Amino acid sequence: MLIRRRGLGGRPAWFLSVLFSVALLEQACGSSDSCEETRSCGSEKKDAGSDSAAPDGGNDATADGSDGSPTDAALGDFSISSAPGPVTLTVGNSNEVTVSVARTNGSSESLVVSAEGLPPGVTSTSAIAGANDASVTLTLTATLAALQGSKDITVAATGVSSGLTRNATTSLFVRGRPGSLDTTFGKQGYVEAHAGGVDSYSRDLSIGADDTIVLVGWVGVGPVGATTPNGTALAKLTPDGTPDSSFGGSGTIHEPIADGDHGYAITSQGAKGLVVFSQTKAAAGGVLRRYLGNGSIDTSFGSGGVASLPAATKGFTARNLLQQSDGKLIAVGVALNASNDWNFAAMRLTADGQVDTSFGTGGLVLVPGGACASADDARVHSNGSIMVVGESHDCYDPQSFQPFMVKLTPAGALDSNFGTQGKSLLFAPTSGRAHSFLFEPPSSFIVLTGKGIGTLSLVDSAGKDTQTIGDFGSVTFPQNATHLLRQNDNKILAVGTVGEHVLMTRFLPDFKLDTTFGEGGQKVVSTGALLMYGVRVGFQKDGRIIVAGTKWIPPYTAPTIRMWAARFWN
Questions:
Q1: N or C, which terminus of the chain has less Cβ within 10 Å?
Q2: Please, what are the domains in the chain?
Q3: Cα 331 from chain centroid?
Q4: How far apart are CA 30 and CA 172, in angstroms?
């Protein structure tokens, strides 16, 4: 709404000083030949009953100036506008706002333009719009401590001679630097959730198409510091980190309550609900359940709400739960073979929880590594093939971990075109494990490996390290990273933990450190915990980074364990 003001009470001292200075200039212009010909000084005489050029101290008027005083038509009128925004302002930086000026009825007086209603920590310059200025620019600056988030601000222009003020509204969005904590999320950037019992653990994360966040894990019961699983737990947060009360009434659920039952992996089926793999004491290793939007178990899924695993499954633990483009579910992890050795394991179920017997053998695929193997990450390619990475090792030598990759056809058979009969052992024994990977078009893979430090390698479609990135064929960085994600701008984010700290490293598409992120490409986040584990990471639609895990809260002798999530600027 446009407002016409007569009184200037409440204006800051700097504004009145600027207004007074410009008014003196205007008066001087009337008798000086050196003034610009384009600047009008109101040379026409005013009628005896007209408003004076000075502010009259009266009340604010309506937009048409009907405050009971006659309007001085000689001064004309004006309006201002600004782009609707939001104007994005990063803390520690500045940005410009362009204010357009439109004059009517011969207006030529100078205007003082300023910004009002700024959030704490944000300042703005002022500007003078002369008679021929179609626009002016204000510079907004945010300190490092500026209040983050969105806020509507007012841009005001005041006539030096008439005292008339016109306003326009735009929105301002103050954000943090890349890699810094987003203090608009939860409580100053963090969320802790408790689903019942003594402790609440988080093991996996799902971010919905609506940016809602769901953590899955379990409730622990028993002595403090030594609890045991007592049922799957889920916590649902709104996009900005507050508990979603439509989910279980408080944002958390603990269902079913069962000894040894604990949630391990989750995927969203959109409107159908959330599918969770829960490890149990059953011989197969666990079950899948689907939870509806209100947190209740969907009894139409599987059999009475529980989807059993393929008949030959033994001791299965899911590390990943994926969806194919046709809605079928793929669970990937580790299971025992007939000789009781640990193997890569993958299984497929229909979207409604029935075993897909067309996949592998009776719905199950077991892939041996050396003697034992364990999967850490899996993804479904657009062509339907399934890529799995993890490690192979001597079952009796905990130091013998070696990165291991497996490629399956859409039907669950080993892809003979990859590695050696669908399997590839990377690097030397004892070199660690393959934690995560990304598809690198057109047919390669970026693989994250490491044992204490992180290493990125480019692996070709045949399963061989190309040794073509970085200065020495690969990129190493001082971080025990366990997850690798690609942003929409093709930058690559590696995330992991060391003790209480969450560590993030970001690379440019050419695998060089992105020095705009954190401190020189890396960000170390101290959580104030004794220990952080089970960390998972994902992106919201605007690219902001969600990190979730389990937080051990001091004291060491009797820790409190909670689900934990935080959001960071991309």
A1: N
A2: 13-175 (2.60.40.10), 177-308+532-570 (no CATH), 312-477 (no CATH)
A3: 25
A4: 40
Using the structure block, give the residue that is written with the tokens 């004059």. 103
Beta strand segments in 160-302, E: 165-175, 190-193, 199-207, 213-221, 228-237, 252-254, 262-268, 274-279, 286-291
Burial class (CB in 10 A: 0-12, 13-18, 19+), 533: middle
Which residue, 284, 288, 348, is CA-closest to 316?
Answer: 284
pLDDT in tens, 216-258: 999 999 998 889 999 999 999 999 999 999 999 999 999 999 9
> In 441-539, at which residue ranges do the beta strands (DSSP E only) sit?
444-450, 454-459, 475-477, 481-486, 492-498, 501-507, 522-526, 531-539
145 vs 93, 120, 121, 176, 526, CA distance in Å? 11, 8, 6, 9, 18
Q: Using DSSP, state whether 293 is helix, strand or coil.
A: coil
Burial 473-505 (b: 16+ CB within 10 A, else e): ebbebebbbbbbbbeeeebbbbbbbeebbbbbb
- Which tokens go with 145? 């401590």
Instruction: Report residue 56 CA to chain centroid gap.
Output: 52
pLDDT per residue as tens digits for the range 476-499: 998 889 999 999 999 999 999 877
CA-derived radius of gyration, the chain? 32
CB-CB neighbours of 2 under 10 Å: 15
pTM of the model: 0.86
